[in-house]
Design a protein that fits this description.
Distance between the termini: 34 Å
CATH architecture: 3-Layer(aba) Sandwich
Oligomer: single chain
CATH topology: Rossmann fold
CATH class: Alpha Beta
Strand order of the largest sheet: 3-2-1-4-5-7-6
Number of helices: 9
Shape: globular
Number of domains: 1
Order of helices and strands: HHHEHEHEEHEHHHEE
Strand content: 15-25%
CATH superfamily: Vaccinia Virus protein VP39
Protein backbone atom coordinates (compact mmCIF):
# COMPACT_ATOMS: atom_id res chain seq x y z
CA UNK A 1 0.00 0.00 0.00
CA UNK A 2 1.08 3.59 -0.54
CA UNK A 3 1.34 6.10 2.30
CA UNK A 4 -2.13 7.43 1.42
CA UNK A 5 -3.72 4.02 1.74
CA UNK A 6 -4.06 3.44 -2.00
CA UNK A 7 -2.80 0.28 -3.69
CA UNK A 8 0.78 0.44 -4.84
CA UNK A 9 1.29 0.59 -8.62
CA UNK A 10 0.69 -2.78 -10.25
CA UNK A 11 -1.16 -4.24 -7.27
CA UNK A 12 -4.78 -5.27 -6.86
CA UNK A 13 -7.16 -5.16 -3.93
CA UNK A 14 -8.15 -8.51 -2.39
CA UNK A 15 -11.64 -8.57 -4.01
CA UNK A 16 -10.02 -7.87 -7.39
CA UNK A 17 -7.57 -10.75 -6.92
CA UNK A 18 -10.41 -13.11 -5.97
CA UNK A 19 -12.48 -12.05 -8.98
CA UNK A 20 -9.46 -12.44 -11.26
CA UNK A 21 -8.87 -16.03 -10.14
CA UNK A 22 -12.57 -16.81 -10.53
CA UNK A 23 -12.34 -15.63 -14.14
CA UNK A 24 -9.22 -17.60 -15.09
CA UNK A 25 -10.11 -20.84 -13.28
CA UNK A 26 -11.33 -22.61 -16.43
CA UNK A 27 -7.96 -22.31 -18.20
CA UNK A 28 -5.62 -21.93 -15.22
CA UNK A 29 -4.19 -25.45 -15.47
CA UNK A 30 -3.55 -25.15 -19.21
CA UNK A 31 -1.79 -21.83 -18.78
CA UNK A 32 0.39 -23.24 -16.00
CA UNK A 33 1.48 -26.06 -18.27
CA UNK A 34 2.19 -23.68 -21.16
CA UNK A 35 4.17 -21.23 -19.03
CA UNK A 36 6.26 -23.90 -17.27
CA UNK A 37 6.48 -26.57 -20.00
CA UNK A 38 4.65 -28.85 -17.56
CA UNK A 39 7.38 -28.61 -14.93
CA UNK A 40 5.06 -27.13 -12.29
CA UNK A 41 3.95 -30.65 -11.34
CA UNK A 42 7.55 -31.59 -10.56
CA UNK A 43 8.02 -28.49 -8.43
CA UNK A 44 4.86 -29.22 -6.47
CA UNK A 45 6.02 -32.78 -5.88
CA UNK A 46 9.29 -31.45 -4.48
CA UNK A 47 7.42 -29.05 -2.21
CA UNK A 48 5.28 -31.94 -0.93
CA UNK A 49 8.47 -33.90 -0.24
CA UNK A 50 9.79 -31.02 1.88
CA UNK A 51 6.56 -30.98 3.89
CA UNK A 52 7.77 -34.36 5.21
CA UNK A 53 4.32 -35.84 5.76
CA UNK A 54 3.76 -39.57 5.74
CA UNK A 55 0.90 -42.01 6.15
CA UNK A 56 -1.72 -40.79 8.60
CA UNK A 57 -0.47 -37.18 8.71
CA UNK A 58 -2.62 -34.08 8.42
CA UNK A 59 -1.76 -31.33 5.93
CA UNK A 60 -3.26 -28.04 4.77
CA UNK A 61 -2.64 -26.52 1.35
CA UNK A 62 -3.34 -22.79 1.46
CA UNK A 63 -4.36 -20.90 -1.70
CA UNK A 64 -4.76 -24.33 -3.25
CA UNK A 65 -6.15 -23.10 -6.56
CA UNK A 66 -7.16 -26.12 -8.63
CA UNK A 67 -5.67 -28.45 -6.03
CA UNK A 68 -2.47 -29.85 -7.57
CA UNK A 69 -0.32 -29.46 -4.45
CA UNK A 70 -3.09 -30.85 -2.23
CA UNK A 71 -3.21 -33.89 -4.50
CA UNK A 72 0.55 -34.38 -4.10
CA UNK A 73 0.18 -34.21 -0.32
CA UNK A 74 -2.67 -36.71 -0.40
CA UNK A 75 -0.45 -39.23 -2.16
CA UNK A 76 1.91 -39.06 0.82
CA UNK A 77 -0.55 -39.17 3.73
CA UNK A 78 -2.64 -42.03 2.31
CA UNK A 79 -6.19 -42.99 3.13
CA UNK A 80 -5.52 -42.72 6.88
CA UNK A 81 -4.40 -39.12 6.65
CA UNK A 82 -6.17 -35.82 6.07
CA UNK A 83 -5.51 -33.16 3.45
CA UNK A 84 -7.52 -29.96 3.16
CA UNK A 85 -7.14 -27.55 0.26
CA UNK A 86 -8.23 -24.00 1.12
CA UNK A 87 -8.83 -21.09 -1.26
CA UNK A 88 -10.89 -17.91 -1.44
CA UNK A 89 -11.85 -18.42 -5.11
CA UNK A 90 -15.01 -20.49 -5.42
CA UNK A 91 -14.36 -21.16 -9.11
CA UNK A 92 -10.88 -22.50 -8.40
CA UNK A 93 -12.32 -24.74 -5.69
CA UNK A 94 -14.98 -26.02 -8.08
CA UNK A 95 -12.28 -27.17 -10.51
CA UNK A 96 -10.27 -28.72 -7.66
CA UNK A 97 -13.29 -30.71 -6.49
CA UNK A 98 -13.90 -32.05 -9.98
CA UNK A 99 -10.25 -33.00 -10.31
CA UNK A 100 -10.03 -34.76 -6.93
CA UNK A 101 -13.54 -35.49 -5.60
CA UNK A 102 -12.22 -37.56 -2.69
CA UNK A 103 -10.30 -34.63 -1.19
CA UNK A 104 -11.64 -31.83 1.00
CA UNK A 105 -11.57 -28.41 -0.61
CA UNK A 106 -12.92 -25.59 1.54
CA UNK A 107 -13.37 -21.86 1.21
CA UNK A 108 -10.94 -19.92 3.36
CA UNK A 109 -9.02 -16.67 3.47
CA UNK A 110 -5.28 -17.23 3.91
CA UNK A 111 -5.08 -14.23 6.24
CA UNK A 112 -7.70 -15.67 8.62
CA UNK A 113 -7.62 -19.45 8.34
CA UNK A 114 -10.70 -21.15 9.86
CA UNK A 115 -8.69 -23.88 11.62
CA UNK A 116 -7.57 -24.47 15.19
CA UNK A 117 -4.06 -23.88 16.45
CA UNK A 118 -1.63 -26.79 16.00
CA UNK A 119 -4.09 -28.85 13.94
CA UNK A 120 -1.84 -29.87 11.02
CA UNK A 121 1.51 -31.57 10.64
CA UNK A 122 2.35 -29.31 7.69
CA UNK A 123 0.98 -26.34 5.77
CA UNK A 124 1.95 -25.55 2.20
CA UNK A 125 1.34 -22.82 -0.35
CA UNK A 126 2.23 -23.18 -4.02
CA UNK A 127 2.40 -20.04 -6.17
CA UNK A 128 -0.04 -18.27 -3.87
CA UNK A 129 2.02 -16.45 -1.25
CA UNK A 130 2.75 -13.52 -3.58
CA UNK A 131 -1.01 -12.96 -3.76
CA UNK A 132 -1.33 -12.52 0.02
CA UNK A 133 -2.25 -8.89 0.64
CA UNK A 134 -0.26 -9.18 3.88
CA UNK A 135 2.57 -11.71 3.50
CA UNK A 136 3.64 -11.72 7.15
CA UNK A 137 0.09 -12.27 8.34
CA UNK A 138 -0.44 -15.11 5.86
CA UNK A 139 2.76 -16.84 6.95
CA UNK A 140 1.84 -16.36 10.61
CA UNK A 141 -1.54 -18.00 9.99
CA UNK A 142 0.13 -20.97 8.34
CA UNK A 143 2.51 -21.30 11.28
CA UNK A 144 -0.37 -20.99 13.77
CA UNK A 145 -2.29 -23.97 12.41
CA UNK A 146 0.79 -26.22 12.29
CA UNK A 147 1.80 -28.20 15.38
CA UNK A 148 5.15 -27.53 17.07
CA UNK A 149 7.75 -29.38 15.05
CA UNK A 150 5.58 -29.28 11.94
CA UNK A 151 6.63 -27.67 8.68
CA UNK A 152 5.55 -24.72 6.56
CA UNK A 153 6.51 -24.90 2.88
CA UNK A 154 6.36 -22.02 0.38
CA UNK A 155 6.77 -22.73 -3.34
CA UNK A 156 7.07 -19.55 -5.35
CA UNK A 157 8.47 -17.91 -8.45
CA UNK A 158 11.53 -15.79 -7.81
CA UNK A 159 13.69 -13.51 -9.93
CA UNK A 160 16.95 -15.02 -11.23
CA UNK A 161 19.93 -12.74 -10.79
CA UNK A 162 22.46 -14.09 -13.26
CA UNK A 163 22.60 -13.89 -17.04
CA UNK A 164 21.65 -15.42 -19.38
CA UNK A 165 18.64 -16.74 -17.43
CA UNK A 166 17.85 -13.31 -15.99
CA UNK A 167 17.58 -11.94 -19.53
CA UNK A 168 15.36 -14.80 -20.68
CA UNK A 169 13.23 -14.36 -17.56
CA UNK A 170 12.61 -10.68 -18.29
CA UNK A 171 11.64 -11.40 -21.88
CA UNK A 172 9.37 -14.30 -20.91
CA UNK A 173 7.58 -12.75 -17.94
CA UNK A 174 7.49 -9.11 -18.98
CA UNK A 175 6.62 -9.62 -22.67
CA UNK A 176 5.53 -13.10 -23.64
CA UNK A 177 3.36 -13.98 -20.62
CA UNK A 178 1.24 -10.79 -20.92
CA UNK A 179 0.94 -11.49 -24.67
CA UNK A 180 -0.36 -15.01 -23.98
CA UNK A 181 -2.74 -13.49 -21.47
CA UNK A 182 -4.17 -11.15 -24.09
CA UNK A 183 -4.80 -14.14 -26.36
CA UNK A 184 -6.92 -15.70 -23.59
CA UNK A 185 -8.82 -12.45 -23.09
CA UNK A 186 -7.35 -12.04 -19.60
CA UNK A 187 -4.67 -9.40 -20.07
CA UNK A 188 -5.10 -8.17 -16.48
CA UNK A 189 -4.30 -11.53 -14.89
CA UNK A 190 -1.19 -12.18 -16.93
CA UNK A 191 0.18 -8.67 -16.60
CA UNK A 192 -0.46 -8.93 -12.86
CA UNK A 193 1.66 -12.10 -12.73
CA UNK A 194 5.05 -10.51 -13.58
CA UNK A 195 4.34 -7.47 -11.42
CA UNK A 196 3.45 -9.68 -8.45
CA UNK A 197 6.69 -11.63 -8.88
CA UNK A 198 8.74 -8.42 -8.97
CA UNK A 199 7.13 -7.24 -5.73
CA UNK A 200 7.69 -10.51 -3.92
CA UNK A 201 10.79 -10.72 -1.70
CA UNK A 202 13.79 -12.72 -2.83
CA UNK A 203 14.80 -15.92 -1.07
CA UNK A 204 16.59 -14.17 1.80
CA UNK A 205 13.71 -11.74 2.35
CA UNK A 206 11.11 -14.50 2.36
CA UNK A 207 13.20 -16.49 4.84
CA UNK A 208 13.29 -13.43 7.10
CA UNK A 209 9.49 -13.12 6.93
CA UNK A 210 9.12 -16.80 7.79
CA UNK A 211 11.34 -16.28 10.82
CA UNK A 212 9.15 -13.38 11.96
CA UNK A 213 6.16 -15.74 11.65
CA UNK A 214 7.72 -18.02 14.26
CA UNK A 215 9.47 -20.55 12.05
CA UNK A 216 13.00 -21.82 12.49
CA UNK A 217 15.49 -24.05 10.71
CA UNK A 218 14.57 -22.20 7.52
CA UNK A 219 16.20 -23.26 4.29
CA UNK A 220 15.40 -23.04 0.62
CA UNK A 221 16.07 -24.74 -2.67
CA UNK A 222 16.48 -22.88 -5.95
CA UNK A 223 15.53 -24.86 -9.03
CA UNK A 224 14.72 -24.28 -12.71
CA UNK A 225 17.91 -22.24 -12.97
CA UNK A 226 16.89 -19.94 -10.13
CA UNK A 227 13.35 -19.12 -11.27
CA UNK A 228 11.68 -21.28 -8.59
CA UNK A 229 12.36 -21.13 -4.85
CA UNK A 230 10.99 -23.67 -2.37
CA UNK A 231 11.32 -22.59 1.27
CA UNK A 232 10.71 -24.78 4.29
CA UNK A 233 10.64 -23.83 7.96
CA UNK A 234 9.81 -25.68 11.18
CA UNK A 235 7.50 -24.38 13.87
CA UNK A 236 9.31 -23.99 17.15
CA UNK A 237 8.26 -26.06 20.15
CA UNK A 238 5.95 -24.28 22.56
Amino acid sequence: MTSRGQPAPGTLEEPQVRAMFDRIASFYDRMNSVMTAGLHHRWRARAADLAAVGPGARALDVATGTGDLAIELARRVGSGGEVIGSDFSEEMLAHARRKAPDLRFEWGNALDLPYANDRFDAATVGFGARNFSDLERGLAEMARVVRPGGRVVVLEITTPRRAPLSTFYRVWFDRLVPLIGRLTGESLAYSYLPSSVRRFPGPEGLAASMAVAGLGDIRWILTAGGIIAIHVGTKAAA
